[in-house]
Amino acid sequence: MSVQEYLDKHMLSRRIEDAVNAAVRAKTPDPVLFISNHMRKSVPSVITKVKARQILDSRGIPTVEVDLHTNKGVFRASVPSGASSGMYEAIELRDGDKGTYLGNGVNRAVKNINEKISVALVGMDPTLQSQIDQVMIDLDKTENKSELGANAILAVSIAACKAGAAEKEVPLYKHIADLSGQTSLLLPIPVFTLVTGGKHAGNNLAIQEIMILPVGSKTFEEALQIGSETYHHLKVVITEKYGAYGCNVGEDGGFAPDISSLRDGLDLVQEAIGRTGYKEKIKIAIGVAATEFCIGTKYDLDFKTPNKSGQNFKSGQDMIDMYKELCADYPVVSIEDPFDKEDWEHVKYFSSLGMCQVVGDDLLMSNPKRIERAIQENACNALLLKVNQIGTVTETIEVVKMAKDAQWGVVISQRSGETEDSFIADLSVGLATGQIKAGAPCRGERLAKYNQLLRIEQELGDQAVYIGEKWRT
């Protein structure tokens, strides 16, 4: 296209005249800057380039980062990764070359973005999120995104979402709300990790994490303060009992003292809560990740202690009895993945007891088909949403709608391998999920999410609504 053809196509002569007239009417002291800004707003934005690179996540393992260019700016996104992946989730593409990053490189995914996805998206309107995501899904042609890689597709999807918000000149969370049809914005309750075990830490604790929910806080800012103070009180409690070495942390920032008993961990957290003075404002959540220690139909709570492994096997009914006792003895209001991902019968029965929120993680893997089955069978009552298990912003919005229509809770979740990208903070507000799990109130990649929520609350001002005690509804 020649310059003259471009000018004619976009009616730039008329736009320039309009910009000059607007500057005169505004009596602006800087006409050149005014006209420049006016012109930028008057020309619709399109994607001009998509450039990807390999970066490292919080564990020092490669992941994908994307810079998506439009004629309005450059928009960056990076994707997280979990310690484990399941057969029902979208596939992150790894290089497999053991001589480079132990096989964990993502250069194939990066190449797919730079050579395939970029070509397909150039010229598209960044506000058309569903169309952008569908183009990538069609380009991949697989059900689990294994051709291009969910890590490649998601990075571009998130970057496009940010570009769409910029084009509309609205905050990212507002753009996400518009995309989903969500009419109200909601600050979520933070679910802070305090004690870490399972695959995320080197101690002997089988269960993955003990968390707290500041349900009695009136604002997100207060909730973050409560979480931080409790975390630091816990550090003192652990130091007194186990020494300074007990304050080593797991991959998500939670303390990893050398304990093997869940009750020992809960007692430590209870002691810390007691010292904060916030006892009436804090509830406890447990992330079990039972799939990691399920052997056949039994659960090995000593699976991380080789000389004891096999001595603490529990049946599904034993696990139910244990959870009943824990809910009676501690202020436990939420349990995540209490059984193996294929142990549908026990999780259905436990959910039917109505003792607490029962969150599906490995059970669901953010997979629409698994979620649909769980809804039909009343297998749990909350979704742990991990965007990298789905692969696009559009599909993320769809599964949240499924969960909400079923009157489920929704917990937007981090991964053990995180980046500094704070996208899930805006996602939780825009989709009004009510709960966000971003790890401990420490470490930059975790605080990026919590600090972004502070900014959003401040930006909304009097319009900010924090879910607080209504976190289940």
TrEMBL record:
One of its GO terms (biological process) is glycolytic process. Its cofactor is Mg(2+). GO terms for cellular component: nucleus; phosphopyruvate hydratase complex. PROSITE patterns: ENOLASE (PS00164). Pathway: Carbohydrate degradation; glycolysis; pyruvate from D-glyceraldehyde 3-phosphate: step 4/5. One of its GO terms (molecular function) is phosphopyruvate hydratase activity. Gene3D superfamilies: Enolase-like C-terminal domain, Enolase-like, N-terminal domain. Substrate binds at H200, E209, E336, D361, S413, Q414, R415, S416, K437. The active site is at D252 (proton donor), K386 (proton acceptor). InterPro entries: Enolase, Enolase-like_C_sf, Enolase-like_N, Enolase_C, Enolase_CS, Enolase_N. Mg(2+) is required for catalysis and for stabilizing the dimer. Belongs to the enolase family. This is phosphopyruvate hydratase. It comes from Nicotiana attenuata (Coyote tobacco).
